[in-house]
Design goal:
Largest sheet: 7 strands, antiparallel
Distance between the termini: 27 Å
CATH superfamily of the largest domain: Aminohydrolase, N-terminal nucleophile (Ntn) domain
Number of helices: 20
Number of strands: 23
Strand order of the largest sheet: 3-2-4-1-10-9-11
Helix content: 25-40%
Structural class: alpha+beta
Shape: globular
Length: 495
């Protein structure tokens, strides 16, 4: 077997090119979204609502999707590998009947990409049926799992979410709410959990509020989601954010929301990358609109690093808002200098090594008539390894750009994330190894500037009454809001 064939086969494990690729995607050097959760309580069409809600959250995970429905007496659920529209159809959705549902879209930051790890995970224990869906990462899951295994637990998946199920099953409490509280106090990390029994739905958010989690209403029904854009998709309205350390309980016997806690709020630290890159522009996080925040990042970037140029363009899609803000601040025209091909996802065709080396051309095209003979300011949200930035700069140069000035709407990404974002080891992060001038040379740009740390926080616009304005910026400044275990340091939670 040739080296070329070996390489191509190592890039994915399933039938589709983007199925099971994990962190081995050789085409695109971008951070990977975590996961997305969606929940419904008190609506007869809970499965259909979950389908549309998950579709709106598809950007948070494309490997697998699943929905579990409870009717007061039993569960019905379906999950599979692939996109939401590929996993679900009228035949399997009509089998999911009940007023309560939890759903999930997954990108594996911890655990393998395979059906056994697709969520919601469903278990049977002494209290009956239990389903769990989560967005985030438990950075002490490894040590807790070892302890449970030493006590006789047998794990069926490689997902750290299963650890919570074992802790609940082993709890001395028969009451599910007390058992969930006890389990959550034994794990550390970033998470938004949805727990479901045959007659209850429980929502919980980590004590630091690292991962976004919101509650909405649709008539008398309650909705839960990773982002507010999911409420718009089902005709619901935003009600409020789930607070850090909060435990919300809904029971079919009362249909009353019980607001409880399993932990006090600790140092608030919502992930800054949600504002920079992950969340959809039409979502609000902590009542701050993502598109507006990104525009302010672009404006601040222009104030910090003006350059005389002819056009401003953004790398689709997450950088468009920042590019508009940069253009508005400088007066340099914003143009669609880069176009994204939205149909490069799941394919049975395995690209050749030559195409893989030029892989960015499968996803992005430069508009020659816009950039030829022009000095271009290219706005992007981050630089991870630097490989994609080099490809895009060269793409613009090949299209005739006379100068390419790169502006990044975040500080240099220097440290791995242990809270649910799939990041490379520190040694693979270009900003951890090179100076800004060395990065500029590596990506073949005429100039390069990153948004300052203070500029980022000012642009997001959250109040200044908390440490770091209530954000986690560890990927930029190495200040992690929780203690990171040695095991997490080694594995990074990104298996």
């Amino acid at each position: 077997m040739s080296d070329e064939i070996k390489t191509s086969q190592q890039l994915w494990t399933g039938n589709f090119y983007n199925e099971g690729i994990g962190s081995h995607d050789g085409l695109f050097d971008k951070l990977r979204e975590e996961c997305g959760v969606f929940g419904v309580f008190g609506h007869p069409e809970s499965a259909s609502l979950s389908y549309y809600g998950l579709h709106a959250l598809q950007h948070r995970g494309q490997e697998s999707a699943g929905i579990c429905v409870a009717n007061g007496e039993s569960f019905s659920y379906y999950r599979n590998m692939g996109l939401v529209k590929e996993v679900f159809n009228n035949d399997n959705l009509t089998t999911l009947v009940g007023p309560s549902a939890i759903g999930h879209v997954r990108y594996s930051t911890s655990g393998e990409s395979k059906l056994a790890n697709a969520q919601p995970l469903v278990f049977k224990y002494r209290g009956g049926d239990l389903a769990i869906a989560t967005n985030g990462n438990l950075h002490n899951a490894g040590e807790v799992k070892k302890e449970l295994e030493s006590q006789g637990s047998i794990f069926q998946t490689t997902s750290d979410t299963e650890v919570i199920a074992h802790l609940i099953a082993r709890s001395k409490h028969d009451d599910i709410v007390l058992a969930v509280k006890e389990a959550l106090l034994k794990v550390e990390g970033a998470y938004a959990f949805l727990f479901q029994t045959k007659d209850k739905l429980i929502a919980a958010r980590d004590p630091h509020g690292l991962r976004p989690f919101v509650m909405g209403r649709l008539g008398n029904a309650y909705l839960f989601a990773s982002e507010t854009c999911a409420f718009d998709a089902v005709g619901g309205t935003y009600y409020r954010d789930v607070e850090p350390g909060e435990l919300l309980v809904l029971d079919m016997s009362t249909n009353v929301l019980v607001e409880d806690r399993f932990s006090p709020i600790k140092q608030r630290a919502i992930c800054a990358m949600e504002y920079i890159y992950f969340a959809r522009p039409d979502s609000d996080i902590d009542e701050i609109n993502i598109h507006s925040a990104r525009k302010r990042m672009g404006r601040q970037l222009a104030l910090e690093s003006f350059v005389d140029a002819d056009v401003v363009t953004g790398v689709p899609d997450s950088s468009i808002s920042a590019a508009i803000g940069f253009a508005e601040q400088t007066g340099i025209p914003y143009e669609l200098g880069l176009i994204k091909n939205r149909y490069t996802g799941r394919t049975f065709i395995q690209p050749s090594q030559e195409l893989r080396e030029q892989g960015v051309k499968m996803k992005l095209s430069a508009v020659r008539s816009i950039v030829a003979g022009k000095r271009v300011v290219m706005i992007d949200d981050s630089i991870v390894r630097g490989t994609t930035s080099l490809r895009i700069v060269n793409l613009l140069r090949e299209a005739g750009a006379t100068e390419v000035h790169v502006r990044i709407s975040s500080p240099p990404f220097k440290n791995p994330c242990f809270y649910g974002i799939d990041t490379p080891d520190r040694k693979e992060l270009i900003a951890a190894q090179k100076s800004i001038e060395e990065i500029r040379q590596a990506i073949n740009a005429d100039s390069l500037h990153f948004l300052s740390h203070d500029g980022l926080l000012n642009a997001i616009g959250r109040p200044n009454g908390e440490f770091n304005r209530g954000h986690c910026t560890a990927c930029f400044d190495n200040r992690y809001p929780t203690k990171i275990t040695d095991e997490a340091e080694v594995g990074c939670g990104c298996d």
